[in-house]
Amino acid sequence: MLCGLARPEADAGGILTCPVCGWRLGDSPDPDLPRPRVDVVYYVRWGERIKIGTSREPRQRLAAIWHQELLAFEPGGRAVERARHVQFAHLREGGEWFRAAPELRAHAVALADGIPPWHRYARWVADALRGAVS
């Protein structure tokens, strides 16, 4: 399994796959191929503020940012991040930090759609890896 976030389950054809990332048990990415780039826009909360940022290495980036909660990931890089900064400019408190107003919280909840952010990211990475080898 690629992500290691859940126990494999048999799909309709009896093949064991991860219910989180969809990777088949026993398959492994080709170590000679570069890992695909998966840029994300992240939404993290600290108190009553939300940071909207972007990273191609979210685990490393979020380890360096003080936050209480990871609210959501959204696929995309700087262009999507810029669009969100414009969309929520009226809530900006400085830099990439915004007031955690109901509309921004609702946006993050809609992005998450009840799925843990790291599960979404695992799926995107697995999909990108599958695309790189198919």
Written overview of the protein:
By secondary structure, the protein is α+β, with helices and mostly antiparallel strands. It has a domain of 77 residues. The protein is built from 4 helices and 7 strands, in the order ββββαβαββαα. The chain starts with 8 loop residues before the first strand and ends with a helix.
Cα-to-Cα separation, first versus last residue: 18 Å
Helicity, in percent? 25-40%
List the helices and strands in order. EEEEHEHEEHH
Could you say which overall geometry the principal axes of the C-alpha atoms support?
elongated
Please compute the radius of gyration using only Cα atoms: 17 Å
Number of strands: 7
Strand content bin: 15-25%
Strand order of the largest sheet: 5-3-4-7-6
Major β-sheet profile? 5 strands, antiparallel
State the low-pLDDT regions, or none.
none
Structural class: alpha+beta
Number of helices, where a helix is a run of at least 4 consecutive DSSP H or I residues:
4
Q: Averaged pLDDT, please?
A: 92
